[in-house]
Specification:
alpha/beta; Rossmann fold; Arc Repressor Mutant, subunit A; six-stranded parallel β-sheet; transcription
């Protein structure tokens, strides 16, 4: 796995590089600016880019813009976005088109090395990752009646909420004191009612949660 890192905080940038190299991963380049990221992508053709949301010169959305451009230049590039705190617009915008090979984590997650590395590998493999804290805070902000989800049963809403917290099927089953098979049945029903057929380009679990968040803003 070849990785480029775009982070304007030099200490975090070098710390990430050291961490990844210690795991026998190849850090092809590091950059402190969006232009540096794009140059590194062009030169090194990485598999994954780890990108800070807020970068120079304005420290607003330069990282997101650069990540989108990097994926345009290198189709299939996996991107793991790091943010210091929950930024709703960026999180929902990032996953709005194609969630495959995309991740959004809070920077504090880097300190939980095993979780961070698991997220990195999942994104590199074409999966999607949203930090459970990001999802939890967004759900808390927008918990209101939603006509788009009116067709879900109370149990299906409960399952979707636990999915949003980042729980897998087994963990959901344990929380609800039901079987894995029952959880799988509920999730299939949620996907059907939300019109989410199997699609290699997107993670339906992520799409279901983001649809909830998006409709909740209305």
């Amino acid at each position: 796995m070849r990785i480029v890192i775009a982070e304007d905080d030099a200490l975090l940038r070098e710390g990430l590089a050291l961490l990844l190299r210690a795991e026998d991963l190849t850090v092809a380049a590091t950059a402190g600016t969006p232009d540096g990221l794009l140059a590194a992508v062009d030169e090194h053709a990485p598999d994954v880019a780890i990108v800070d949301v807020r970068m120079p010169p304005t420290h607003t959305d330069e990282g997101i813009v650069a990540a989108v451009e990097a994926r345009r230049r290198r189709p299939g590039l996996a991107v793991l976005v790091l943010s210091a705190y929950v930024e709703q617009a960026f999180a929902t915008e990032l996953f709005s088109v194609d969630a495959a090979g995309l991740g959004y984590l809070l920077k504090e997650r880097v300190g939980r090395v095993e979780e961070f590395l698991a997220a990195l590998h999942r994104v590199a493999a074409g999966g999607s990752v949203i930090d459970p804290e990001v999802v939890g805070q967004l759900l808390a902000r927008h918990r209101r009646p939603d006509t788009a989800l009116a067709g879900l049963s109370p149990r299906e809403r409960e399952v979707l909420g636990l999915m949003a917290e980042g729980l897998g099927n087994t963990a959901i089953a344990e929380r609800l004191f039901v079987t894995d098979g029952a959880v799988h049945k509920h999730i299939r029903s949620i996907f059907a009612k939300l019109g989410l057929p199997p699609d290699d380009r997107a993670d339906r679990r992520v799409t279901a949660v983001l649809r909830y968040l998006h409709e909740g803003r209305g």
